[in-house]
Amino acid sequence: MTRLAAKNISVKRAYEAPAKGDGTRILVDRLWPRGLSKADAAIDHWLKDIAPSTDLRKWFAHDPARWEEFRQRYADEIRGHPEQLDELRACARSGRLTLVFAAHDESRNNAVVLRDVLLGHVGSGPAHSA
Known about the structure:
This protein is an alpha/beta fold. Helices cover about 35% and strands about 10% of the residues. Strands 1-4-2-3 form a four-stranded parallel sheet.
């Protein structure tokens, strides 16, 4: 399997204005961003199933002290959705892919973990190879 180019995958808050350079915009949250109209969001696809489970999302609660454990737990959940991962990889191979999220923290959120999994940067136990 060929590695994806990091330049082809970006993350962006749902509340930031869409840009031509975003390419395919995929919302990767389980819940629609509050107060944002579908027209303003300019979302091409909404992959709810690849978002963190409700239990994991509630446990994390965007607590920076839980970030590293959240990364690992969410990476494990992501790998349980091979069809969605394949869809995202195909988008990134054919052009620019922007993973859209609603969280306030731009460096510690599910889209960042998902991008890292797609790029092979998040390990999962001894069986994982980057």
